[in-house]
Amino acid sequence: MAKFSGKKRRDVAIPQASTSDIAFLLLLFFMVTTVFVQEKKFWVERDRWPLAESIERIPRNHTSTIYIMRDETILLDDIPTRIESSEDVFVSQTLIRKKAEDSELIVCFRTDRDTKYGVISDVIRQLQDANALVVAFETQPLLKK
Does residue 24 fall inside a structural domain? Predict the structure, then answer.
């Protein structure tokens, strides 16, 4: 019987010389293109937040944060403002624009424990005017004894 001597298959080798260069370039690419956004810290003292009995996490990609200080200064997404009278509409106009851009907008309140409720009520009234009805009040968790 005759043996067929077919073509011998050659092992296909992938050149490994440039693998480290490619890995380095990928690492450099992701380091350059990644953006980390840090949450800015303001004058609302966290240990003075009201206490909460139940906690639920809020997704941060659809939020707009309103900081209300003791001196009635209001920061809407890091933009300082004051509500001098009930006719001030800065908050409602800004939130109408944000609500048009993002229909799943959640407005988060961060207030000091000693903030007067009248200021919070004025801001809530402007939220109603802007039809931003999904509101979350950020609080300090109630410590279990």
Answer: no
The 10 Å Cβ neighbour count of residue 115 is 20
Decide: pTM greater than 0.90.
no
Residue 122 in domain:
yes
Q: How would you write the pLDDT of the chain (145 residues) with one tens digit per residue?
A: 667 666 777 777 777 788 889 999 999 999 999 887 766 655 555 556 556 666 667 777 778 888 888 777 888 877 777 666 555 666 777 777 888 887 788 888 888 777 788 888 888 888 887 777 788 777 665 555 4
Q: Domain of 102? A: 60-141
CA proximity to 136, closest of 111, 109, 117, 116: 109
74 and 91 Cβ atoms separated by less than 8 Å: yes
| 8: amino acid identity, one letter | K
CATH number (domain holding residue 92) = 3.30.420.270
Work out how many domains the chain is built from and give that number. Answer: 1
Residue with tokens 């937040």: 49
